[in-house]
Amino acid sequence: MSSSVLWYLSRSTGMVLLVLLSFTAVLGILIHSRARVQWLPSFAVTGLHRNASLLAVVLLVIHVATAVLDPFVSISWLSVVVPFTSHYEPVWMGLGALSLDIMLAVVVTSLLRERIGHRTWRAVHVLNYAMYPLAVVHGIGAASDLQSGVLLLISVVCVAAVAGAAGWRLVDALRHVPPRRRVVVQLAAAEAVGTRR
User: Fold this and answer.
1) What is the pLDDT of residues 161-194, one digit of tens each?
2) Which of 39, 114, 116, 164 has its CA 20 to 30 A from that of 11?
3) How confident is the model over 23-57, as pLDDT tens digits?
4) What pLDDT, on the 0 to 100 scale, is given for residue 92?
5) CB neighbours of 67 closer than 8 A, spacing ≥ 6?
6) By the 8 A CB rule, do 106 and 125 touch?
7) Three-state secondary structure call for residue 116
8) pLDDT for position 101
9) Can you give 41-104 as a three-state secondary structure string?
10) What is the pTM of this model?
11) What is the average pLDDT score of the chain?
């Protein structure tokens, strides 16, 4: 396979992966919020989320394999899973490796969900909120063609969709806190903000 074919495969799967991860993130937020997709029953939304996630894993394997096999750049298999060890674009590849590691943890715990329990699965699954921005920054930093034009616009739309859904979920969750717990939740949030400063 020629270097240009591998390059195009790596870039195109990375871009489709960004769109698919954004779609999956928004679906995940809808599943675990009070919102419901009116035209689909909840089991169908859950199935769509699961299948989109599995497709994302397949695209990720293709994306990583084509990047490593491309002779134009030097990316080792080790640097794919061990963050910040790549000689080629160490920061951007390191962020991609972190994102990959988180996705692998989420996939493995999802496959073992019945054995490890819902609480453990949920704790690991929440890491998707870290994985997504790491993947986005990796893509924009590593791919110069994502830094302007239509591809940057697609990236911005994807990020805006996920940020909007996450923000809506947070506001909706706070709005549905029982009245007797609102003061406790607000004090805890204020304390968390205060300790960060």
Assistant:
1) 999 988 888 887 777 666 666 666 666 666 665 5
2) 164
3) 999 988 877 765 555 666 777 778 888 889 899 99
4) 93
5) 6, 10, 73, 75, 80
6) yes
7) helix
8) 94
9) CHHHHHHHHHHHHHHHHHHHHHHHHHHHHCCCCCCCHHHHHCCCCCCCCHHHHHHHHHHHHHHH
10) 0.78
11) 84
User: What are φ and ψ of residue 70, in 5° steps?
Assistant: -65, 115
CA nearest 11: which of 151, 158, 156, 149? 151
Which residues lie below 8 Å from residue 108, measured CB to CB, with a gap of 6+?
Answer: none
Which residue has 């794919």 as its token pair? 80
**Exposure class string for 160-174: b at 16+ Cβ within 10 A, else e:** ebbeebbeebeeeee
Lowest mean pLDDT among 14-23, 35-44, 82-91, 146-155: 35-44
Q: Contact, 147 vs 15, CB < 8 A?
A: no
Running DSSP on this structure, what letter comes out for residue 142?
A: H
CA nearest 23: which of 64, 51, 63, 42? 51
- C-alpha–C-alpha distance, residues 110 and 106, integer Å: 6
Q: What would the two tokens of residue 47 be?
A: 């199935």
